Amino acid sequence: MSKLQTAGTSRPAAAATGAVSLQIENISQRFGATVALDSVSLTVEAGETVCLLGHSGCGKTTMLRVAAGIEKPDAGTVHLGGRMVTGPGVFVPPEARGIGLMFQDYALFPHLTISGNVKFGLSKLPASQAQAIAREALERVGLARYGDDYPHMLSGGEQQRVALARALAPGPGILLMDEPFSNLDQRTRESIREETMMLLRQSSTTCVVVTHDPIEAMSIADRIVLMREGVIVQTGTPEEIYCKPATLFAARYFCDLNEIDGEASGNMVRTPIGSFSPAHKVADGPCLVGIRPQAISLVIAGTEDLEGTVVSRRFLGESDAVNIAVAGLDNPLHAHLPTGYAPAPGERAGIRIDPAGVLAFPQKMTT
Ligand code: ATP
Hints:
The protein is 23% helix and 34% strand. Strand 8, helix 6 (186-202) and strand 9 (206-211) form a beta-alpha-beta unit. A 6-stranded mixed sheet has the order 7-8-9-3-10-11, sandwiched between helices. It has helices at residues 14-17, 60-68, 114-119, 127-140, 156-168, 186-202, 214-220, 238-243, 248-254; strands at 22-31, 34-44, 49-53, 75-80, 83-87, 90-91, 99-102, 174-178, 206-211, 223-228, 231-236, 258-265, 268-271, 274-276, 285-291, 296-299, 306-315, 320-326, 333-337, 348-353, 358-362. The chain is built from 9 helices and 21 strands. It folds into 2 domains: 22-232, P-loop containing nucleotide triphosphate hydrolases (Rossmann fold, 3-Layer(aba) Sandwich), CATH 3.40.50.300; 258-365, CATH 2.40.50.140. By secondary structure, it is of the alpha+beta class. Helix 4 crosses helix 5 (156-168). Adenosine-5'-triphosphate (ATP) binds at residues 31, 34, 36, 54, 56-62, 212.
């Protein structure tokens, strides 16, 4: 039985839960010479979970802070549930925006009890009502019995759940989360992430989650917003953005591609290791071909697309990471293969490449 109260996964209609939409339009934000956001626009529908994904410094946190009202942008507007909260002559402070905030370090107050932390945002309510709401919020995250303890007495995972209870207690229309799982160790992170998102889906809360981890984004987002250097480079469902990356940058973000020079003509790309029909068409001419490691499989002699020599093989538990040298390529192909099947280093291997895992981009799109 999960620690969070997560029975059932169906989502109530957003309108029934008070979830609100977020609309960011043409937001620009500079810090000195740094352009943190460059005329960025984004709409998050009520009840939707959107992940802002990108490398460090691309502007994810700034976007979240602008939405929260912690940062006043140089230009642009923010609407929450259709109400302008940032815009010309308008700036609603964070505490009046009806948002829930959750940070990477949880930002729990060390001198307050767990119950006191959760009640913090409920100070306008009568004490008995605040107490009841805090208790219910702690019950939802399975921590009601810790109400009188202090944050330092709880594990990292428990502190994360207190932060979640505190953010949700006032019944926010939208929850803004900045790397909320990154302080947890790998094993705890996956289970807490799953439980947290299930809880949020049940309540149909609108969520914006900042992360730099593509696997995390794919596992929690309805829609991913991929950012780079202050702009949005692509938005889409996890499947859309993974399977149809609009740029080489997007493809590389989600996959450690084998990159090979090629020449596109019609529906085919020609490379030093053969011709492929890539997953999407690219304009005729020089191109860069990306082969996903998992698109490479080993086959019995006589049925292979090409032959190579195993250079190295690393056991990774659920798969083997194998490097295979192939005539015509400067670097070996790297593949993820089922454990135990790859020949030992130095041995020959027959290779087949699944065209669904072959991407092609115009050569000029080098990043
Ligand atoms: P990270 O994943 O490392 O948190 P991020 O994508 O969230 O990065 P931001 O924190 O939004 O990126 O920062 C975007 C850019 O703006 C960075 O170059 C950062 O150094 C700069 N920046 C952000 N806040 C400030 C500030 N208060 N003063 C000066 N520069 C800032």
